[in-house]
Amino acid sequence: MSLIPLADTPQVGFGSDPWWVIGLKVLLVFIFLVVFTLFNIWFERRVVARMQHRVGPNVHGPFGLLQSLADGMKLMFKEDLTPKGVDKFVYIAAPVIVSIPAFMTFAVIPFGPTVRIPFTDTYTRLQITDLPVSVLYVMAIASIGIYGIVLAGWSSNSTYSLLGGLRSSAQMISYEVAMGLALVAVFLFAGSLSTSEIVDAQASSQTINLLGAEIPIPGWYAVLLFPSFVIYVISMVGETNRAPFDLPEAEGELVAGYLTEYSSMKYAMFFLAEYINMATVSALATTLFLGGWRAPWPISIWDGANEGYWPVLWFFGKLLAFVFFFVWLRGTLPRLRYDQFMKLGWKVLIPISLGWIVLVATVRAVGREVEFNRTYLLVAAGIIAGFAIITMFLPQKQEPEPTTAAADEEFDAFAGGYPVPPPLIPDTATAGAETAKEGNRG
């Protein structure tokens, strides 16, 4: 496999590939997602086992790498049960509706620059296709998967499944709003919604003068738009129903949520979609905030770091870092209470996102009129926004509890229209009188 210098590589536009090249790229992306899902399951079990001082899978294959394949084969050959009373067509279609969009989102993710296919004279981009609104395409396709989860809960004829489906719909809607708002600042800076153009916009690095020293700052939007990056990372965990936001599958409350009545391959398809969605939001975060397939510093100092097939390695490295972050959260944080979770989305993330968008838009508008280094202002604004987020998570001073005057009032068992038992803790004076009576009787 020979590497072609970037200056000598012909520029190939989207839509000009032969049919066999398009089919080859689609097949490779499909194989990558399936294999990467098997690896993610093994990786998660090994990392969490290490965090909890356990061994983890280590029997099937070297280092237990074939354990995920064995689990998939087991689910494939298990009996497929269909409970009574389900809406059979919707019940069967729901896992298909969830899994198919998970594969479609990777059609616009760039894996690398233009390369030459080995053993041929054909050049192609390491991306299936691109659109002027690629990011909106990803958001729209990801939203379709919500319907599959809601339909799975509704069609299962089970209260637990229905509650899990409703929770999942409310959760995804809430955090998709915050996720979309977090991306607006990226669009304002890049001037485009195309994934390949956003990656190109992060190619140039900047320097700031701090105490007389020139400090290089990469052009990654994770640095320039740090509050947007933090909001997106929190939102992507809620979007994928992963711990500590796995409330639709809370086993302590809903058995298994929308998955309760599923088994065999239909059950496996839901988990396939979940792990592919993990890869999707991680790939989107890599593309929009971490420079995509471009090499990180100091590897970027090497002239050939962003040429040939090397960028694929940098892209997968960043992708795996986000997957480790998912696993780290699962093995560290407990599950949130549902009201806390919704409060975080609607009362914290969305207001901060709106305020940050106004600030970024103001900086962009003023920057066209006045000559100044916008990097300083954005860094200072990011620090202020970070302090604001931290302040919101600090414990609030609780109000003193009301006096026992309300407890002294006469208890009416029929006040609410239904008879209710009296309070379990009696009044102190009443308890003393009852004790005296018992003593006199003795």
TrEMBL record:
<comment type="subunit">
    <text>NDH-1 is composed of 14 different subunits. Subunits NuoA, H, J, K, L, M, N constitute the membrane sector of the complex.</text>
</comment>
<feature type="transmembrane region" description="Helical">
    <location>
        <begin position="175"/>
        <end position="195"/>
    </location>
</feature>
<feature type="transmembrane region" description="Helical">
    <location>
        <begin position="344"/>
        <end position="363"/>
    </location>
</feature>
<keyword id="KW-0874">Quinone</keyword>
<feature type="transmembrane region" description="Helical">
    <location>
        <begin position="131"/>
        <end position="154"/>
    </location>
</feature>
<keyword id="KW-0472">Membrane</keyword>
<feature type="region of interest" description="Disordered">
    <location>
        <begin position="422"/>
        <end position="442"/>
    </location>
</feature>
<keyword id="KW-0520">NAD</keyword>
<feature type="transmembrane region" description="Helical">
    <location>
        <begin position="89"/>
        <end position="111"/>
    </location>
</feature>
<feature type="transmembrane region" description="Helical">
    <location>
        <begin position="275"/>
        <end position="293"/>
    </location>
</feature>
<dbReference type="GO" id="GO:0050136">
    <property type="term" value="F:NADH dehydrogenase (quinone) (non-electrogenic) activity"/>
</dbReference>
<keyword id="KW-0812">Transmembrane</keyword>
<keyword id="KW-1133">Transmembrane helix</keyword>
<dbReference type="Pfam" id="PF00146">
    <property type="entry name" value="NADHdh"/>
</dbReference>
<feature type="transmembrane region" description="Helical">
    <location>
        <begin position="20"/>
        <end position="43"/>
    </location>
</feature>
<keyword id="KW-0830">Ubiquinone</keyword>
<comment type="similarity">
    <text>Belongs to the complex I subunit 1 family.</text>
</comment>
<keyword id="KW-1003">Cell membrane</keyword>
<keyword id="KW-0560">Oxidoreductase</keyword>
<feature type="transmembrane region" description="Helical">
    <location>
        <begin position="313"/>
        <end position="332"/>
    </location>
</feature>
<dbReference type="InterPro" id="IPR018086">
    <property type="entry name" value="NADH_UbQ_OxRdtase_su1_CS"/>
</dbReference>
<keyword id="KW-1278">Translocase</keyword>
<feature type="transmembrane region" description="Helical">
    <location>
        <begin position="375"/>
        <end position="394"/>
    </location>
</feature>
<comment type="function">
    <text>NDH-1 shuttles electrons from NADH, via FMN and iron-sulfur (Fe-S) centers, to quinones in the respiratory chain. The immediate electron acceptor for the enzyme in this species is believed to be ubiquinone. Couples the redox reaction to proton translocation (for every two electrons transferred, four hydrogen ions are translocated across the cytoplasmic membrane), and thus conserves the redox energy in a proton gradient. This subunit may bind ubiquinone.</text>
</comment>
<dbReference type="InterPro" id="IPR001694">
    <property type="entry name" value="NADH_UbQ_OxRdtase_su1/FPO"/>
</dbReference>
<feature type="transmembrane region" description="Helical">
    <location>
        <begin position="215"/>
        <end position="234"/>
    </location>
</feature>
<protein>
    <recommendedName>
        <fullName>NADH-quinone oxidoreductase subunit H</fullName>
        <ecNumber>7.1.1.-</ecNumber>
    </recommendedName>
</protein>
